[in-house]
Amino acid sequence: MNSDLNINSILHQFERLDKQAQQNLFEKLALMIHKPEQKKSKVKLSSISGLGSSLWSKIDIDDYVDQERQW
Question: What is the model's pTM?
Answer without folding.
Answer: 0.45
